Description:
Elements: E1 2-6, H1 20-29, E2 34-37, H2 46-56, E3 61-64, E4 66-70, E5 73-79, H3 95-103, E6 107-110, E7 138-143, H4 148-164, E8 170-174, E9 188-192, H5 199-208, E10 213-215, E11 218-225, E12 228-235, E13 248-253, E14 256-261, E15 266-270, E16 277-283, E17 292-295, E18 299-300
Parallel strand pairs: 1-2, 2-3, 6-7, 7-8
Antiparallel strand pairs: 1-9, 4-5, 5-6, 9-10, 10-17, 11-12, 12-15, 13-14, 13-16, 16-17, 16-18
Amino acid sequence: MFKRYELHNHTTQSDAGITCRALIDHMIADGVDCFAITDHNTISGHPIIKRILEEERLPIACAYGMEYTTYYGHIVCPVLEQYVPWDSINRKKPELLFEAAKRAGAVTGVAHPFSYGDPFARGCRFEMEITDFSNVDYIEIVNNPEPLHEVNEPGILWWESLVLSGVKVAACAGMDLHGLDSFAMKFATYCEGDPGGDPVEELKAAVAAQRTWVSKGMLVAAEKKGDCVRFTLVDAKKPGFVPADTYTLTLKTKDGTRAYDITAGEVDVPLPELGEAVVPKLYGGETVIENLCCVAPVIRAGD
């Protein structure tokens, strides 16, 4: 089964207008399986949410994290259960902070890498110079409040260029909630899991294996069938998702992009057409960024 994650959220413990209680209720009302609390530079909301969830035995899981908010960009850690100081942040060597967070058991991500930054939102644009991605778990390829063309499309393209060059890094999405915004037709992160499984542990495993989906509500699953890979549409039943009349699957490799009509629900693609690595994406109709429905996990030769 697939589980839905909302990995980037703030409360009144930092700069948002919603309390920890309101955040929990908002997530439950929309059927979220697991959400993260990622307040700016503080974990003060952790005990508040833990107490509410434990005392009321609510049907949702929480990943306790934080967003490092610096003048050179934001590092979002949906799993970071102990505060890791960042006073030694180095714009030329951000690996030091990623490594420190990972030693503490964190899941680490680059938040909204192409945000506008100065002079509109100082520090939001990621200007740190990463040369070693070994401790970077994911890139937030879609930050839902940000402009599609100016911010999110460059984020998707950056991630694609990295993974097609061999870098092992997952893709995730974030609402970056600061209020009770609607989730309808917004991108969420999905991971595979078991009905009785621990969603936080399943998130850790999925991100480590680069097995995450970024989707508005329709997913693309892939399974090897003989000398082909069968791609299948899976409806995630996300509230507010509006199905398209037709669907197009694109497979992007270093050599170019192929498109396939998958409106019928599945399509078989010969293995030679996949190459060494391929990024599957799903569009509702024409293959323009406005119609993007899903970015699926990278398929690599030998997987």
